[in-house]
Design brief:
12 strands; alpha/beta; TIM Barrel; single chain; eight-stranded parallel β-barrel
Amino acid sequence: MNHRIIARLDIKGPNLVKGIHLEGLRVLGSPEEFAEHYYNNGADELFYQDVVASLYERNSLDDIITRTAKMAFIPLTVGGGLRTIEDINRVLRAGADKICINTAAINNPKFIAEAVKVFGSSTIVVAIEVIKQSGKYLAYTDNGREYTGVDALEWAKKVEELGAGEICLTSVDREGTGLGFDSDLIKNVTTSVSIPVIAHGGAGSKEDIEKVIVESKADAVALASILHYDFVRKNKNPLATKSEGNFEFLKNNSVFKKINPVSLFEIKDYLNAKGIGCRFLMENTNE
């Protein structure tokens, strides 16, 4: 079995951003520039998430999706602010291969089944954003902002029952921290459902990625900080878009000490050496 390595790109306005616990968003550059780099360096999929779409009740990534789809010939998943069948149809027409829903799914679980009926299960990913409270894993919406009281494990089972093709499981507690994945959360879900589970939130090293695949049985891993900081460090990425956002992280040449940035090639080379199946790159194009 080949495990997918997915590059996740959180987007606010025209910019690629990255935060901690899905908050405190720092501008890193142009999403298309990062996406093209990851495509050329062996990403199995790209995942665009509009991180303020649910807050402002819109999804405005159509132009970015179209430009990316013209240069990256790997699956592209898009999430954020998708509430209706027409929303999904519009994003797919723009060039997305799959869509990811969270807020709309929890607010109206039947929307999952409706979307699956129209577009097929392989097109529908459900995001589950989880915060641990009093020993319980609870699902949140609106990019980890809104409490629902929904038990995350029970919700994962329901998502499968309603026909979703896969789950993107985010530990909000670990996201952006570099402290490693929440292994217990991920294992609880992977052993309770039969559809693929994408682990997201917390990767700080190659070893963290190995562990979540081997011990927690993740089918795929979505990575952000560990890849983005490697790209910024090696490419001195210019401030390509300056219309909005917090640029202090780039201006100060900041680093995040708990994360050991690595390239996609380095990750796949490491996993293959450990006997973990993933699509192997014949040469390193990261230079």
